From TrEMBL, chains A, B:
It holds the Pfam family Bac_luciferase. It comes from Duganella lactea. The keyword Flavoprotein applies. Belongs to the NtaA/SnaA/DszA monooxygenase family. It comes from the Bacteria. SUPFAM superfamilies: Bacterial luciferase-like. It is an enzyme of class 1 (oxidoreductase). Its EC number is 1.14.-.-. PANTHER family: ALKANESULFONATE MONOOXYGENASE-RELATED, C2H2 FINGER DOMAIN TRANSCRIPTION FACTOR (EUROFUNG)-RELATED. This is NtaA/DmoA family FMN-dependent monooxygenase.
Amino acid sequence: MSRQMSIGAFMMRHGHHVAAWRHPDTDLLSNPFKVFREQVRAAERACLDAVFFADSVALTGAPSLEPLTLLSALAASTEKIGLIGTATTTYNEPYTVARQFASLDLLSDGRAGWNLVTSDNAAEAANFGREQHVAHADRYARAREFHQVVTGLWNSWDPDALVDDKSGELPYDPAKLHTLNHRGDYFAVKGPLNVVRSPQGRPVVVQAGSSETGRDLAAATAEVVFTAQPTLAKAQDFYRDLKRRVADQGRSPESLKILPGLFAVVGRTQAEADEKFAQLQALIEPKAGLALLGRMIGNFDLSGYPLDGPLPELPETQDGQRSRQQLLTALAQGENLTIRQLYERIAGGRGHFTVVGTAQVVADQMQQWFEQGAADGFNFMSPALPGGLDDFLTLVIPELQRRGLFRTAYAGSTLRSHLGL
Amino acid sequence: MSRQMSIGAFMMRHGHHVAAWRHPDTDLLSNPFKVFREQVRAAERACLDAVFFADSVALTGAPSLEPLTLLSALAASTEKIGLIGTATTTYNEPYTVARQFASLDLLSDGRAGWNLVTSDNAAEAANFGREQHVAHADRYARAREFHQVVTGLWNSWDPDALVDDKSGELPYDPAKLHTLNHRGDYFAVKGPLNVVRSPQGRPVVVQAGSSETGRDLAAATAEVVFTAQPTLAKAQDFYRDLKRRVADQGRSPESLKILPGLFAVVGRTQAEADEKFAQLQALIEPKAGLALLGRMIGNFDLSGYPLDGPLPELPETQDGQRSRQQLLTALAQGENLTIRQLYERIAGGRGHFTVVGTAQVVADQMQQWFEQGAADGFNFMSPALPGGLDDFLTLVIPELQRRGLFRTAYAGSTLRSHLGL
């Protein structure tokens, strides 16, 4: 069989467009679990590899559900689709994170993935007793040791440690249970974990760092990387660079899958797609546009600047948005954009690969990226829910299937199997 | 309608009897979520108020699932039954606990309960960078402030904060969102929480402390207390004492429900019940019995003492098992029990109210406790699963329903409604 794409759906409460919640079709009051359940079941019918939930340990935008509880409820509502959730290494304990993901992995029969992030904003810090967020280098050093502890704990139990033998002293073979005894700069964790392995062995590790430090961490530890790449050329550079770093770690380049985000507005005709996008763009509240842009350039308050004037000179941000800040500043200068034009440019895909068009147009672009060394697949970002996801699942996925680029049925039952890891 | 019992099912991987996993009917290898799902659905068909999961952040006994992920998966598999899980205040952050329980509460449409505990054993401490467990007084001071932060965060959103209005700047009314700004001895947490209220307003707070400090904390903060009481007289003392402390706090005594644990082995005849109990007792491995007894008297190693000799003089334990240690020492001395006889005595109910008999016998005892000021209901502890739970649900519950002591259908949809809170 020829190489196939991995495709995830990056789920957000109302969709990824900053005005998604104002779209006539979004449902503001229903139980968000029940709303997500229908969408994730649709993604499963389309044989997607996984759904993916971001996270913030503070209120940013609309309130939503916490990923581990939500994904566990979704696990009970689906059979095959992978379930990737975000948990920060900055304000959690590794025993707790290892355990909750192992538990999700076991109860879902091997479909869990952990998106390892560091926390870089002040609102999050303030919920955990800190005056300001942790410095970049310190966050990454902690993240690396955190990953070491979590994966060490996931190795507590050999796959055959549980025995169907009621004559002994314990319901498992103690020789197949391993104590971690970790002592490092940030953590001392004895172990073992009190959750056994799932059918996929251990949760899949996902990351999205794009700084130098972030890429090195990903090359050393990640199995999937989710990334924001606006153009084919930049995506190819990133792909080549990260796969090289993976090889430098002595790992096979295929052991890490690179999935750029894809913000796609899909119509049955180009005019219908354009009209759908224009409808969302027209719903942008200037304050919301400014707030989004301000967050993405390093939590800079733009409210004092004229909307139709240029982006001011910005101090270089010290937080995790540095590469995003550079990207947007270059974009504004290169195309001479006003503040309003710049936030309109990012209101949908936030700097991710963006396509507006028919299924053929979207599939052509995806195929080009996939075949020209820019991507192993994509993390689809729906403009507004549920319509934007339905369009992608019912129009683009069948087109990719016709081209032999995407599965028409799940071959296995675990996330690791879907991803070919 | 006359006063009715609240009844929960305290679920454990294989059952509460120390030899439960060795029972011929227990399932050692299946996915534990799927095993629990069948049992919890049966409890829901019998209209129980809730299922209850204990927790340990270390391996103690058989490995199992983590409560919040498990309960979320069970929420998606049931419609009405309450879902109570344990989370320690000793090794967690209040923002995280508040958020995960709020999320479970929202996705389950108002069925969550948080069993607030402190962690008192060295194995748990060693998974969180500590040489030994935190001292009793310090644990309780932290627990009280932790509760204050969690419930404060649960009040972040007014019930009507979400609005179905797409014309504004935000999908909620910012005047109905409250920032906590907590600064105390243990925590500084700004808030607000990023999860909105469920239909029951906020999760139910459950506790099980029995020390003086534990009772004071419960009187100030708990809505349900789960307690180990071996006899009617002791249960009456505890009930009277705790309800008095609740009144001293200016709370209505009905605002706290007291549910003693009930370990019941049920048969269609007394002989059948006796035989079922004897079958389990015969399966006790001496090492497992000794280990259980050692844990319950304050983590004291009894392996050097003759099984058929007396319990040695014990140093008074400094950890959370002090009241259990006193109870067991008094029992051994009062009845002149050997070590083996003592562990056999606790191998099932671990010091909880224990009844072996027909549905009539069990219901008579429950009715007596309920009507004579010892209990507002019970937390049923199944000897071995699934049989022990099935017996209780299909034999005892109908008997209680015939007596008008327990509902025959859910009147409401939330845990708070089931409990009459």
